[in-house]
Design goal:
2 domains; 4-stranded mixed sheet; globular; 60s Ribosomal Protein L30, Chain: A
Length: about 450
């Protein structure tokens, strides 16, 4: 029997740009556009600046470009730094079925390797499509997902990042099999990074899995070998997780490959917060706007949602967030910010804003309740009910089935453009910003990824 790893490798090695429908190419460019915007915005974050200093200490051969700043480093370090930038504001894409993940965390592996190898824009697009394809399939094939057994989704990314990198390194099938086996041996990540008080590691573990994939692909290209049956073999993924009671459906990883592409099902973030909060924010904004509710008029606000949201987003630490990482994963905080500011943008997660007394005063008034009926609808829908009781005796409700940014309710082009502009404006003049945006939307016309990457460097950095 052909191993799962080999079946995936055969598809990845043989996929070409001509196999991609026009809609898939367009959607891929849309996610590249959003991801680069997120990366440029994250150059202003404290953790990204720390990591920039760390990589300067480490040094590395000048092989690839860090977005925004223009620093040069080897492809392993550059993929890591750019992935941390993409992930750094919790503003990049989201796919949540049995497990959540952010496939765009892997795009920097494609960018770094593509720059070194002189890959064309078309080749780059194929690599990114593969990243989304298998990251999303891995989010679908475990019942319940590994997150429900206290493991982080970087555990899944380690299986996929070597595929994106290996595609542009020109790995053959055997080498691709080895690359996945190498990477998937050492990035199993506990859920602690997103539980309780959150630290900078919340946004760092997935970029580390991306970095691992680039290194693994390089090792495989030079003849290093890894275990082939990393999924189904003795003490492989399935075997080591057998104690958890998870039922794996491995056919989901390989059935129908090429018939359609998972990237068409991925969501995009309208708010820089944990994915499940988007429904709460959407519903709260709708209610306070429609009824012009002022913060002092709220006696109590109840969010009915799924049990995992209550567990992740409303534990006691989330009622006293002290960091951006905890605040953007706090149900009470994001709801309170929606009420007070009537928006949720990066500005709501500055240290000063997190301590704002008007927001703080609302936190104990916000309750989270797990609703079994809503649970039945998840993950096909991302439902919640927002119930506001006002000081004058009114009870106002709003039901959300899925938030803006869901593929069934995509962010309108003008709003996506506004998001990009807001994130990139501190680094680029208006002329250079327009040039970069035009380049992204015409990515397939580039003969070299290196030429494209030069346009991601800010002229005001």
């Amino acid at each position: 029997m052909v191993s799962i790893n080999r079946q995936i490798a055969e598809f990845a090695v043989n996929l070409t740009y001509d196999d991609l429908p026009e809609a898939v190419v367009k959607e891929t460019k849309r996610f590249v556009f959003d991801s680069i915007g997120c990366a440029l915005g994250a150059t202003q974050t404290h953790d990204a600046k720390i990591m920039r200093d760390v990589l300067k200490v480490l040094g590395g051969e000048s092989q690839a470009t860090v977005m925004g700043w223009g620093d040069r480093n080897n492809i392993v370090n550059t993929a890591f730094m750019n992935a941390l930038l993409v992930r750094g504001m919790d503003y990049n894409d989201i796919y949540w079925e049995q497990d959540p993940s952010h496939p765009s965390d892997i795009i920097p592996a494609s960018l770094a390797v593509g720059e070194l190898e002189g890959s064309s824009g078309k080749e780059l697009i194929v690599s990114i499509v593969l990243a989304y394809e298998f990251e999303q399939r891995l989010c679908e094939f475990a019942f319940p997902g590994i997150r429900e057994r206290k493991w982080h989704h970087a555990t899944l990314t380690q299986f996929v990042s070597p595929i994106a990198a290996g595609k542009l390194l020109g790995l053959n099938v055997d080498q691709m099999v080895h690359a996945v086996g190498i990477s998937a041996c050492h990035n199993f990540t506990p859920g602690k990074v997103t539980a309780g008080d959150l630290t900078m590691m919340k946004n760092t573990v997935d970029p580390m899995a991306t970095r691992s994939g680039v290194m693994a692909a390089l090792m495989a290209k030079h003849g290093y070998e890894g275990p082939e049956e990393i999924y189904e073999g003795k003490e492989g993924f399935f075997d080591t997780f057998s104690y958890t009671g998870i039922e794996f459906k491995p056919e989901i990883l390989t059935e129908g490959l090429g018939d359609s592409f998972r990237i068409m099902r991925c969501g995009m973030k309208a708010f820089p917060t944990e994915a499940l909060t988007h429904s709460f924010i959407t519903g709260t904004l709708a209610l306070v706007t429609e009824h012009d509710i002022k913060p002092h008029e709220i006696e109590e606000l109840t969010v009915k949602t799924v049990a995992r949201a209550v567990d992740i987003l409303a534990d006691p630490t989330k009622y006293d967030p002290q960091t951006r990482e905890t605040a953007d994963h706090s149900l009470p905080y994001v709801v309170a910010a929606s009420i007070v500011d009537r928006m949720v943008t990066p500005e709501q997660f500055t240290p000063e804003r997190i301590q704002d007394p008007n927001i703080r005063a609302l936190l104990p008034k916000i309750k989270a309740v797990a609703d079994p009926e809503l649970e039945k609808q998840f993950p096909a829908k991302k439902p919640c009910d927002i119930i506001i009781k006002t000081t004058d005796g009114r009870t106002l409700t709003h039901h959300v089935e899925y938030p803006i940014g869901d593929p069934r309710l995509p962010i309108p082009p003008d709003q996506l453009d506004n998001k990009f502009n807001a994130l990139a404006k501190s680094l680029f003049s208006s002329e250079k910003l327009a040039e970069l945006k035009e380049a992204i939307w015409n990515l397939e016309t580039f003969a070299s990824t290196a030429d494209f990457m030069q346009l991601t460097v800010g002229n005001l950095a």
